[in-house]
TrEMBL record:
Lineage, uppermost ranks: unclassified sequences, metagenomes, ecological metagenomes
Keyword Isomerase attributed: no
Protein name per Swiss-Prot or TrEMBL: SOS-response repressor and protease LexA
Family membership: Belongs to the peptidase S24 family.
Record-listed E.C. numbers: 3.4.21.88
Record-linked InterPro entries: LexA, LexA-like, LexA/Signal_pep-like_sf, LexA_repressor, Peptidase_S24_LexA, Peptidase_S24_S26A/B/C, WH-like_DNA-bd_sf, WH_DNA-bd_sf
One GO term of the biological process aspect: DNA replication
Enzyme class: hydrolase
CDD domains: S24_LexA-like
Gene3D superfamilies on file: Umud Fragment, subunit A (2.10.109.10), Winged helix-like DNA-binding domain superfamily/Winged helix DNA-binding domain (1.10.10.10)
Domain Peptidase S24/S26A/S26B/S26C positions: 54-168
UniProt source species: hydrothermal vent metagenome
Pfam families given in the database record: Peptidase_S24
Keywords for the protein's UniProt record, in alphabetical order: Autocatalytic cleavage, DNA damage, DNA repair, DNA replication, DNA-binding, Hydrolase, Protease, Repressor, SOS response, Transcription, Transcription regulation
Length: 175
């Protein structure tokens, strides 16, 4: 199977910047979805093994509940599917009030339309991507709102912003 070049990755996800495509490829590699072979032409390898972890039962976050042993498998590939989803590592603190912290990994459903109030991956001017809450404004512009009271909203003409996906999940490691 012939893997795509960075130009083809950029074109495939609807952006012009190979630099942004490279950052996405790097994020996918860090999340374990890709293996990179530096210095090799088209050196991107898709990890095809399904990630599955044992699901041992339920745990109370309030009043304790009876511990009932049981085991199942949580197959992450069926939860998120292979085609419409990707992961991005979060850098920065603009989304802390939404519970998304620096270093978290967010799972993105790839789509070009989002509902008002959803947390989106927004590509601005075809070059810079950000994770923000989307707000449609009455004048037709878009507000990209940080979930951090110290940061003002970013207002853009709608034609300057391309929605690349919405947040549908989040992973956080504690070690």
């Amino acid at each position: 199977m012939l893997t795509p070049s960075l130009s083809e990755v950029a074109e495939g996800i609807g952006i012009r910047s190979k630099g942004v495509a490279h950052r996405y490829v790097q994020a996918l590699a860090e999340a374990g979805a890709l293996i990179l072979h530096p210095g090799q032409h088209r050196g991107i390898e898709l990890v095809e093994d399904a990630l599955s972890i044992p699901l041992l039962g339920r745990i109370a976050a309030g009043q304790p509940i009876e511990a009932i042993p049981g085991q199942d498998q949580l197959d992450l590939s069926t939860l998120y599917g292979p085609n419409r989803y990707y992961a991005l590592r979060v850098t920065g603190d603009s989304m802390v009030d939404a519970g998304i912290l620096d270093g978290d990994t967010v799972i993105i459903e790839q789509r070009d339309i989002a509902n008002d109030g959803e947390i989106v991956v927004a590509l601005i001017d075809g070059e810079n991507a950000t994770l923000k809450r989307l707000k449609y404004r009455q004048d037709g512009s878009l507000a990209l709102i940080a979930e951090n009271t110290t940061m003002p909203p970013m207002i853009y003409a709608a034609e300057r912003v391309v929605i690349q996906g919405i947040v549908v999940g989040q992973l956080r490691w504690y070690r």
